[in-house]
Amino acid sequence: MNQLGTxxxxxxxxxxNGNYLLDTNIFLYLLDDIQQKNDPxxxxxxxxxNNLEGVNFFVDIYIISxxxxxxxRNSGYAYAKKNNISKYNYKRDYRSTVDFEETYEYSLxxxxxxxxxxxxxxxxxxxDYLMGAIDNPQAKDFNDQLIINDAVQNDxxxxxxxxxxxxxxxxxPDLPAMYxxxxxx
Amino acid sequence: MNKKIIVKDIIESPLAVNTKQGKEVFEVIEKExxxxxxxxVDFSGLTTITTAFLNLSIGKLYSxxxxxxxxxxxxxxxxxxxxxQKQKIQxxxxxxxxxxxxxxxxxx
Lengths: 185, 108
Fold this sequence. Notes:
The complex is a heterodimer of chains A (about 180) and B (about 110).
Chain A: E1 6-8, E2 18-22, H1 24-31, H2 42-49, E3 55-59, H3 61-82, H4 90-94, H5 98-118, E4 120-121, H6 127-135, H7 142-154, E5 157-159, H8 163-171, E6 178-180
Parallel strand pairs in A: 1-6, 2-3, 2-5, 3-4, 5-6
Chain B: E1 2-6, H1 7-11, E2 15-16, H2 19-34, E3 38-42, E4 48-49, H3 51-57, H4 67-73, E5 74-77, H5 83-94, H6 102-107
Parallel strand pairs in B: 1-3, 2-4, 3-5
Helix pairs in contact in B: 2-3
């Protein structure tokens, strides 16, 4: 059983032994060429811990799906900036572009070459845990709820920069252990 | 004058993964540019190249000069790179000047 609690990570530190589910925002800081520039230090922690015996990273299909979507949205923002598009609208101004098509292909390559080489896939949610997400939602975002239930089912720690998780954790202390470089409150 | 730098030799590892390594490579290239050299950057022998490494080593160069000028003076030797690695470097170069805050990105 993993240790419960919310833990502050420190820049340039290494993770202690354990199984870690990396949240979508962590992959964006690692891999998205736009958002990586805002990385408070997760890239160094994750990649420096990657080869440590006893440290294992996990991902699930909800996180992968969200990552691809966010990666495309971020590229759309960058496209709008580069092309000085005022009142930018993702679907209207970006979805039909060559840039979108190339970024979509690139996002899939990131999943194949970077995410799935760094991480194991966590075991899919059993029906009971899925029903728990439906019948007893704690997060206000269903995808977040699925990620939390994944961590509970598979006994994984969560590394995230999303403060919504910590608010949830403060109400439900028995949720999985969470690690972050961000503010805890 | 052309000056070839071999990334693997600078970072002494086949894994180009962290920001410290990125800064080391950036400083070597910056120094050569300061001597008015054209820099050929050789990525051969690297098994892993992360976005963090590239943003610090290559992307940051675009704070030194205009992209058109920089593209003339920094050449990426790409023979040994996979198609995916080339794409990764290309995207870092194309988006080097774009900075968008987390708050703005999370609005969508």
